[in-house]
Each structure stands twice: as C-alpha cells, then as structure tokens.
C-alpha cells in the first residue's frame, strides 16, 4: 500500500522531506511506518516518544492501522511560551 507522509519542523529536517509517498507492506500500522522511516533515518529514534500522529487529519495512537491512500502527519512537540 502507499501512504502520504507529512513531516513538520524538526522531523522534516531529519527526514529530508516535508511530504512524500511511502510504500509499506500490508498489514501496517503507524508504528510500522515509523520503524520504516527510522531505519532510513536513525536520528529519528530519540523523537519517537514525543511525536504525535494524525491520520487523515485526526490525532490517533501509533498502533492505528493504515489503509491505502491514508495521509499521515508526523508532528513533533510544540514548544514556546
């Protein structure tokens, strides 16, 4: 299946893209997608616990199943004051 991955802020810098279509074997979850991305960009590993995920515009847990054509947004924590 293919999903559209959107990466923001620090995650965009580390991955080297803001938007990309990614192929992943079925069945797949957001956790599996993260593992696939982290295998290519190991510097992502420390950010896993603080990253939030949205599937098709809705915040979801990382165990959420993926469907072909989903849009997955990877969002690092927001800082500031």
From TrEMBL:
Keywords, alphabetical: Nucleotide-binding
Domain of life: Bacteria
Gene Ontology annotations for the cellular component aspect, listed alphabetically: molybdopterin adenylyltransferase complex
Protein name (record): Molybdopterin synthase sulfur carrier subunit
Alphabetized SUPFAM superfamilies for the sequence: MoaD/ThiS (SSF54285)
InterPro entries the UniProt entry points to: Beta-grasp_dom_sf, MOCS2A, Mopterin_synth/thiamin_S_b, ThiS/MoaD-like
GO biological process entries: Mo-molybdopterin cofactor biosynthetic process
Family of this protein: Belongs to the MoaD family.
GO molecular function, one term: nucleotide binding
Pfam family, one: ThiS
């Amino acid at each position: 299946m293919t999903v559209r991955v959107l990466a923001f802020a620090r995650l965009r810098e580390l991955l080297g893209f803001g938007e990309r279509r990614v192929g992943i074997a079925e069945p797949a979850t957001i956790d599996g997608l993260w593992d696939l991305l982290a295998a290519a960009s190991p510097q992502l590993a420390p950010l896993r616990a603080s990253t939030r995920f949205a599937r098709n515009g809705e915040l979801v847990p990382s165990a959420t199943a993926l469907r072909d054509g989903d849009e997955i947004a990877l969002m690092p924590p927001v800082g500031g004051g």
